[in-house]
Amino acid sequence: MKYFQSWQDFMRDPANVSLKETKGIHACKQKYQQEQNKMQWHDPIVTPQNTNGPISIPSAFPANK
Predict the structure, then answer these.
(1) Which percentage of the chain shows pLDDT scores above 70?
(2) Is the pLDDT of residue 24 over 90?
């Protein structure tokens, strides 16, 4: 399923048309929502991670020497 597939495009798929005929429109809506959620969680866009490593925060007080 395409990530940005609309409900109308989803219902044009022959497998979904047969699902509608056998189990009804509510089963199709549920399948559409499940597919959208699955695609959302497995989104191929990778968010950048912090690769800078730990940062050093200077202290407000000088170190005792």
Answers:
(1) 57
(2) yes
